[in-house]
UniProtKB/TrEMBL annotation:
One of its GO terms (molecular function) is NAD binding. It comes from Ornithinimicrobium pratense. The lineage of its organism: Bacteria, Bacillati, Actinomycetota, Actinomycetes, Micrococcales. Residues 328-396 form the ACT domain. Pathway: Amino-acid biosynthesis; L-serine biosynthesis; L-serine from 3-phospho-D-glycerate: step 1/3. Belongs to the D-isomer specific 2-hydroxyacid dehydrogenase family. This is D-3-phosphoglycerate dehydrogenase.
Length: 396
């Protein structure tokens, strides 16, 4: 496959608004590409799929990457990109809708009305009488003055917190690793609390906006639900696994929780009378699908053509303008001492002058971009690959 072309496999349907940004003189595109250089994916589970030898990068058109073997790919020198913020507004709108669905029992109320006609065959005066007699069971509550706890103040959490605040809610936020950028976006009226326990104890509604990782699995559990005020609402547009669903269903049955609104169907949840389950609709707007596809494609393309890494979840951000008249090397290596020294020593021995160089690390791994003057022979790449700790090297 050294014909200078980049085959890209689409594992889910990716918006054509993004795909059309790929120059077809360079990129081949398809669902059944045998030896892809890049994979574009949404929620398809890649954990049990073999990793093609040919693969250079995976781009997730969306936020969550728990469907991708991120660590395994990092160890192979394969960055996994996602698209932070690109679908955040779509999720925010659904969370606001979810709060209103729960507060006014809208789903069950509409179902009740439909049944009066469709199942009971009522009409005219009889229908009106039954509507007026039955509506009291759906009497709800209003949002202003209610306390919403937002867990995870990332791209989505910040938008939800600000929107809820502007609806007149009191908003508490919890995120032990909030970024400076997100903190700047957050309304000053949102109170950041010190512990997740405090947030549960003080919130009448909580909404989850964290990734599904070891530390967030089962974050909503029996103990924390019990600490919430009676009649509380849990909204989960993050991932099913962030909530212990058995604990939530028990709390709904006992009346401690009023409603559970979520985006992740299960057999037990989907049919429960106090659960509103949507079919993973958070990012399913035309706008979000276009935004995610554009961002994923642009990041993948820039990596394949220039070696730049932007918004990878398993490698550091490394972006360097190309130096005219040079050859670029992109090198993935273990984050351990003397890697830079050994790489530059190989370049020096080959008599190559370094025009630009950048190296950044993240956790166990590091990535180097280097623009060198002079002819870079294929053996040089082999010499770099022979350094203990170098995982992968590309000549661009
Ligand atoms: N329902 C959907 O269709 C849909 C759409 C988009 C995203 N999501 C889910 O929402 C998640 C968040 O998306 P985002 O774009 O806001 O991501 P993000 O990376 O911008 O924000 C996630 C935030 O969670 C915080 N966090 C991590 N662990 C935490 C913990 N234990 N307690 C509190 N905060 C913690 C991080 O510090 C970060 O600020 C995604 O990972 C994905 O699983 C779902
Ligand atoms: O993490 C995300 O971005 C959402 O869960 C969206 O998933 P989707 O792209 O499959 O709709």
């Amino acid at each position: 496959m050294s014909n200078g072309r980049f085959p890209i496999q689409t594992v889910n349907a990716i918006s054509p608004v993004g795909l059309q940004r790929l120059d077809r003189d360079i990129f081949d595109l398809g669902t059944d590409i045998a030896e892809p250089r890049g994979i574009l994916v949404r929620s398809a589970d890649l954990h049990d799929r073999p990793v093609p030898q040919s693969l250079y990068a995976v781009a997730r058109a969306g936020a969550g990457t728990n469907n991708i073997p991120v660590d395994k790919l990092a160890a192979l020198g394969i960055p996994v990109f996602n698209t932070p913020g690109a679908n955040a507004n779509a999720v925010k709108e659904l969370v606001i809708a979810g709060m209103l669905l729960a507060a006014r029992s809208l789903y069950h109320a509409a179902d009740y009305t439909r049944n009066l006609v469709a199942e009971q065959g009522l009409s005219g005066q009889a229908l009106n009488e039954q509507v007026e007699a039955g509506k009291k069971q759906f009497a709800g509550f209003e949002l202003p003055g209610k306390t919403l706890g937002v867990i995870g103040l990332g791209s989505i959490g910040v938008l939800v917190a600000n929107a809820a605040q502007s609806l007149g809610m009191k908003v508490l936020g919890y995120d032990p690793a909030v970024t400076i950028k997100n903190a700047w976006q957050l309304s000053p009226n949102v109170e950041q609390v010190e512990s997740v326990e405090e947030l549960f104890a003080r919130s009448e509604l909580i909404t989850l906006h964290v990734p599904l990782i070891d530390s967030t699995r089962g974050l909503v559990n029996t103990e924390r639900i019990a600490s919430m005020p009676r009649g509380a609402v849990v909204l989960n547009f993050a991932r099913g696994g962030v909530v212990d669903e058995t604990a939530v269903l028990q709390a709904l049955d006992s009346g401690h929780l009023h409603a559970y609104v979520n985006d992740f169907p299960t057999e037990a949840g989907a049919v429960h009378s106090r659960v509103i389950t949507l079919p993973h609709l958070g990012a399913s707007t035309g706008e979000a699908e276009d935004n995610c596809a554009v961002m994923a494609v642009d990041q993948l393309q820039d990596f394949l053509l220039n070696g730049n890494i932007r918004n990878a979840v398993n490698y550091p951000e490394v972006i360097m303008a190309r130096t005219p008249g040079t050859t670029r090397l992109g090198i993935f290596n273990a984050n351990k001492p003397n890697m830079i020294g050994q790489i530059t020593a190989v370049l020096a021995e080959a008599g190559l002058n370094v025009a630009e160089f950048t190296n950044k690390s993240r956790g166990d791994y590091a990535y180097t971009l280097v623009d060198v003057e002079g002819e870079v022979r294929d053996e040089l790449k082999e010499q770099i690959l022979a350094i203990d700790g170098v995982i992968r090297a590309r000549k661009l």
